[in-house]
Structure formats: structure tokens, C-alpha cells
Amino acid sequence: MSNATDRVSVHPLGSEDAAEFRAIADHSFHPERGPKEYDETTAFDRISDPYGAFDGEELVSVCTHYDLTASLRGKWTPLAGLASVATPPERRRQGYAEALVDDALERWRGDFPLAALWPFSPPYYRQYGWATANRYVKYTCPIDQLSFARGSVEGRARPATAEEWADLRAVNEAFAAERSLVLRREDEQWWRDRLLSADENDRPWAYVWERDGEVVGYVVYEFGEGSKFADGRVSVEDVAYADHAALRGLLGFLAEYDSQADEVVLSGDSSADLLDLVPDSTTVDCRVMAGPMVRVVDVANALEACPYPADATADLTISVTDGTADWNDGRFRLEVADGEAACSPSTGGEPDVTVDVGTLSQLVVGYHDVTAARRLGDLSVADDATADTLTALFPDQRVFLRTYF
């Protein structure tokens, strides 16, 4: 850590630290609310683990860790999540947040091949080896443009209940089968606390699309400011569907709010096709946004955990640069056959591939294919044959980590 003193230590926080944690986090993420009073009733989020950096005995920076599972090229893979990194303004630029990042990578090593976060500043985390995981599309659509979907498919919409969380999970897993980095939300608590009923007095609307008695899609949404009613914009927080027909059903259902709202705001992966579905695409505001960031935690672990096409073979020496995690800074031998891989540190000889850890992370998840990684990232290959081998190993994917944590 570049500026932090030798007195800095990082360790898990207990309930006695919750009030101080919340004060630091709220100052960083909600300064418009002004200072608040916190007491012993303040509690942590039950689905994440809080950590703190201490300078001597003083808590000077905080963060939370998430133990997640995400889709990766058709396989469920452990994914660490870093969130709520916050330091009071009088303590910033002293290396405390860096200490939290360093500590997190050390803790995750061996258990998580990859880690993700939603950055407050991409350049800040890029210096520590993180790279964009995916882009996503944010649509602001006049609600009457969704009327094309009314009655276009079989099925019906009905309110979802927290007791149906397992049905919604099954839909989410079907949605994840064709996308990388969709979170596998196995835990009942996640669905109940984060999606369906986080606060009984202030919870979002949730509906399912049901076909032949089976839940095949769901949508979770709130109302925001609009021009018809005080709450006249439908803002979709989460949507998943088992197939295209289920998506059309959900869009047709949202169109039924045309007497209460002017527009619908929803997000999709970068290949989402709403512009091709609506009658007049010129009425839809479509913005491509940079999403979360991803990072290889341990090169050998990540390259062994990554699924490969069954017909791909390789025996490559890869030189990786990583200025944060020194165990990744070096050469590795990657051998792939029959969809399985072995990877270990290597010495000697000229490498077949040279890459920084951020670009490697993007190759692993499929955000960049080899051609894009050579053009836009920091990937160099010895020859065309090596490029062809890498292309076979790492075809690009539809990457869509949409869940904010």
C-alpha cells in the first residue's frame, strides 16, 4: 500500500462497529442527507460481510464482501463481490482503500477465481487491475411503444409473492444459461430481502408471467417521477425470462400502465433488441453504459476454472503483469484438452502471450474476444497460430452482470 502507515490493519467488523460503519458509508454515498445520528440498534446488511481498515485503533475505511456465484460460459463459478468502499474525506488519499483492496484479494485467493464490483470511478479501480465486465443498454421508452406486445403471446401476468422465490430463481437460471456473470441467487434470503420484500412498507412491485401454470418470466419495478401522475414513470429494477415469448408477455403487461405513466425505463444486455421490437424506434432513448468491473483474483485458479470448448486444445506460456497481486505477476503455462485445463507458474523461454491482468479478466468472462483485446486492451501474441488458439479458447460472450451490490 503506497501511503498507508505500517499501523494499518484490516479485519472483519462486529456489531459494535455497525454505527461507525454506517456513518462512514453514508457520508460517502449519501452526503446530500447530511450527518445522522446512529446508535446501538444500527445493523449490517445480512447478506454481506463488513470489513474495516484501522490506523492504530481508529476505523478509517470500510467495505463489504459478497460471496456470490455467477454464470461463466455456461458453468456456475464462485464470484467475490466488493462493495461499499468508503473513507471519510479527511482520511482520503492515504492508502486506506488500497489496503482494503489488497486485503480482499488476499482473502479471496484460493476460493474465488474472479471478483466484481460496481465502480464509483472506473479509472480508480483500473489502477488496481480491474476492467469493465460488460456494457448494458438503458432504454427510456414511451409506454405506448410497448402496446405491440399486448395479447401477442399465450400466458398471463399476476402479482408475485415472496413465497414464489424458488420459481423466480428458476427463471433467473434459465436467463443465465445464455449469458455470463448473471448472479445465481440461490439464497431465499436474497430474494426476500433484496428483491421482493426488502421493506414491507416500501417494497417494489413484482409480477410474474405465467404460461400453462408455469412461471416463465418476472419483472420487478417501481414508479418514479413522470408527467401524468406524480409517480408516472415505470422503472424496471429487474427482469428475467425463460424465452422470447415470456419477454413479450412482460412488455405487454407493462404497457397496461399507459393510463398512469408516460414512459418505461429498463435495462438490458448490450445485445438486447427492444429497438427492433417497438413500432417507432426513433421515440426510444437508448444509451449504452459501462457496467461493473471484473478482476481475476488468481491467474492459475481462474484459467483452470474457466470452461473451454470441448474441441479446443492449447499448450501456451502466458506472461501476466499485475501491479497489485504479486502472485499473478509472472509467467504461467496453460494446457487445455477435452474442455479441461491445467495452469501453473512457469519460468524460462519467450512467452506465447503477454497480457495485463485486466485484459486477461475480460478475455476470461468474454467481454472481449482476442481481436478486440489486441486492439483495445493490452494483449500481445507471438504469431497468428497463437492468436487462433486463443480465439478458440475464449470466444466472446453475452456478458450481463446486472445486479447492483
Keywords summarizing the entry:
alpha+beta; Aminopeptidase; single chain; 405 residues; Nonspecific Lipid-transfer Protein, Chain A
Helix content: 10-25%
User: If strands are numbered along the chain, what order do they take across the biggest sheet?
Assistant: 1-2-3-4-5-14-6
CATH class of the largest domain: Alpha Beta
Number of contiguous helices? 11
N-to-C series of helices and strands: EHEEEHEHEEEHHEEEHEHEEHEEEEHHEH
Low-pLDDT sequence parts: none
Provide structural commentary.
- β4 (75-86), α2 and β5 form a beta-alpha-beta unit.
- The model has no long low-confidence stretch (mean pLDDT 91).
- This protein has 3 domains: 8-108, Aminopeptidase, CATH 3.40.630; 136-290, Gcn5-related N-acetyltransferase (GNAT) (Aminopeptidase, 3-Layer(aba) Sandwich); 298-393, SCP2 sterol-binding domain (Nonspecific Lipid-transfer Protein, Chain A).
- It has a 7-stranded mixed beta sheet with strand order 1-2-3-4-5-14-6.
- 41% of the residues are buried.
- The chain is of the alpha+beta class and 405 residues long.
- The chain has helices at residues 18-29, 96-108, 122-126, 165-176, 188-196, 244-254, 274-277, 299-305, 357-365, 370-376, 384-393, and strands spanning 8-12, 49-55, 58-72, 75-86, 114-117, 131-132, 135-142, 156-159, 205-211, 214-224, 233-241, 263-269, 285-290, 293-296, 314-321, 330-337, 340-346, 353-356, 379-381.
